[in-house]
Amino acid sequence: MIRLSVNVNKVAVVRNSRGGTIPGVLDAVEVCLKAGAKGITVHPRADQRHITPTDVREIANYLGPLREQVEFNIEGDPRPDWLDLVREVRPHQATLVPVRPGERTSEAGWSTETDAEKMKVQVRELRKLGIRVSLFVAAEENAINWAREMGADRVELYTGPFAEAYSRGRQEGADSFARFVACAELAHRVGLGINAGHDLDLENLELFRRLPYLDEVSIGHAIISRAIFQGLAKVVGDYLNLLSKK
Question: Alpha-carbon torsion 114, 115, 118, 123, what sign?
């Protein structure tokens, strides 16, 4: 079964908009796990506009006794303070994501023009700590090959373009999906695991879950948005039911 890693950033956005501790990020984690999710994702940004280092530590402590059952995935650009935090809490997976100044959310995968030697050192160090490393990349052949050269364990395919194509019509969605299939097959051939994330929802995931060799999807915005009206536990269950279909 494809693993669902629920991104709880948006819960922290709501909390931070008012200050204080409500809604509680740990409360959201607990609800997601009781609903059956086997993964939790956070993205602590430098500006701390949602998840904070304190949140990361608290989630890591909460998940500690559940380490064999639930994976913790920390996303972020490999700046020094982010790397220090990852070294401290030792998640199962570190997903390295490029950050552009002023962006609302991630807008693109890593450029193949990224400093290769620096990236290789960062990937190698994280892997030595026993942390699986995933690189956030576009569904392009050169990006897949670049990730392999960097020494990553997995790629996380940036699915924003697929979601946009799917929203314009089923045929455009199918055409976009075909490109993702080709990249997934390439990633598998070169020994990379495959994650995916960005703008996936219950509608477009009906198709995308059929991606060959798909290990994990990370979904936050769509889940939390739907949960506002239907309840978090129910919505996590809806996603798990979809992903478990044959």
Answer: positive
Is 96 within 8 Å of 133 (Cβ atoms)? yes
Considering the entire predicted model, what is its pTM? 0.92
CA dist 26 and 80 (Å) reads 26
pLDDT digits (tens, 9 = 90+) for 173-217: 999 999 999 999 999 999 999 999 999 999 999 999 999 999 999
Nearest to 184 by CA among 159, 217, 226, 212: 212
Instruction: Kindly list the distances between the CA atom of residue 167 and the CA atoms of 66, 142, 147, 162, 201, in Å, as whole numbers in the listed order.
Output: 37, 26, 29, 9, 11
On the question of pLDDT at 34 being above 80, the answer is: yes
Active site residues: 43, 75, 198
Q: How would you write 17-41 as a 3-class SS string?
A: HHCCCCCCHHHHHHHHHHHCCCEEE
Residue 205's region, left for phi above 0, alpha for psi from -120 to 50, else beta, is: alpha
Among the four given CATH numbers 2.60.40.3140, 3.40.630.30, 3.40.50.970, 3.20.20.70, the one describing domain 3-243: 3.20.20.70
